[in-house]
């Protein structure tokens, strides 16, 4: 992972895209934070590349954006395990992210701020709070859909181990199963 002097915060979560953009913009109103809002109509990877380009050249303590570099990977992983994805979509999304990362045009944010995690669908919640958090526990932080809480969350960020290299993080992602407990309470399952 390329280190830069700015701490990059990526907002993801359950609010709609417009609300995440609003929260991002409001954080950028603070003197030590720069908000980056790439064009919402661009594809997710292009948005992430634009955000990273600005982060790499920034000279402020914090830069916040809503352009998740793993948005397509997360969506494909969720679809795979929810039974809605096309065969191969996850592999294609992983390869596209890795291609940009290897070219140096894309990096993960220093911290993922997961806004309103409790309202995320279970599989999406597990991608951020399970798959990503298991790789770097202090780099994925749950917060609320409230500006003041978000500010307190940023002020309280703790240091922790860095992300593994992206190719290691995404290796065997197609085999990482979301945590789910399915209880079969049919009469046949109760008979030993």
Topology:
Elements: E1 7-13, H1 17-27, E2 33-36, H2 44-56, E3 62-65, H3 71-82, H4 89-102, E4 111-115, H5 122-135, E5 140-143, H6 147-155, H7 166-170, H8 187-190
Parallel strand pairs: 1-3, 1-4, 2-3, 4-5
Helix pairs in contact: 3-4, 3-5
Summarize this structure briefly.
With 192 residues, this protein is of the alpha/beta class.
Task: Give an overview of the whole structure.
This protein is of the alpha/beta class and 192 residues long. It has one domain: Rossmann fold, CATH 3.40.50. Helix content is 43%, strand content 12%. It is built from 8 helices and 5 strands, in the order βαβαβααβαβααα. Strands 2-3-1-4-5 form a 5-stranded parallel β-sheet, with helices on both faces. β4 (111-115), α5 and β5 form a beta-alpha-beta unit. The chain is globular. Residues 181-192 have low confidence and may be disordered.
Tell me the domain tally: 1
- Report the helical percentage: 40-55%
Average residue-wise pLDDT: 91
Largest sheet: 5 strands, parallel
The computed structural class is alpha/beta
CATH architecture annotation name: 3-Layer(aba) Sandwich
Count every beta strand, where a strand is a DSSP E run of 2 or more residues. Answer: 5
Give the helices and strands as they follow along the chain.
EHEHEHHEHEHHH
Question: How would you write the strand order of the largest sheet?
Answer: 2-3-1-4-5
Shape: globular
Instruction: Quickly name the level 1 CATH class.
Output: Alpha Beta
Helical segment tally? 8
CATH topology: Rossmann fold
What is the straight-line distance between the termini? 52 Å
